Amino acid sequence: MSFDISGGGMEKPYVKGALKLIVLDLLRKPNHGYGIMAEMEELYGIKLSAGTVYPILASLRRGGLIEVIETGDRERKTYRITEKGLDYLEKHGKELKETKRKLGAYKTFLELGGNELKEAFKELFRRIDELSDEQKEEVRKAFEDCARRIRLILLGD
Length: 157
Fold this sequence. Notes:
Radius of gyration: 20 Å
Structural class: mainly alpha
Largest sheet: 2 strands, antiparallel
Strand content: 5-15%
Distance between the termini: 34 Å
């Protein structure tokens, strides 16, 4: 996952902790791992892998915050939050609210074209060594112009 919901230099353990809170909150309504992945994408624009979601579910289960309520086809488990999990969310309500706000902002960023910008940066990183000095100067100017225009928009001009 490649987003920073902190607005600053967030360390990976906090990202995982924030995701645990969100997954726990989503399990107020029983769901399975793939359903959680679909909800995360729908609600927040974040595509999580099974390799991210299932370890979080296992950790929440070990902590007694969620439980398996059904095992269906192909060993698909349906989870739900426990009373201990609800208490945990209540104790971390402020953190959950802030995490949801930041994830909502991230989704809006994507809807405004942030994904296209991310892809352009990835391509630039892959090919930066191939750029001529003139092309590098054009990229620098484009960055400066983009930053200036965004700041002007934020200032209301």
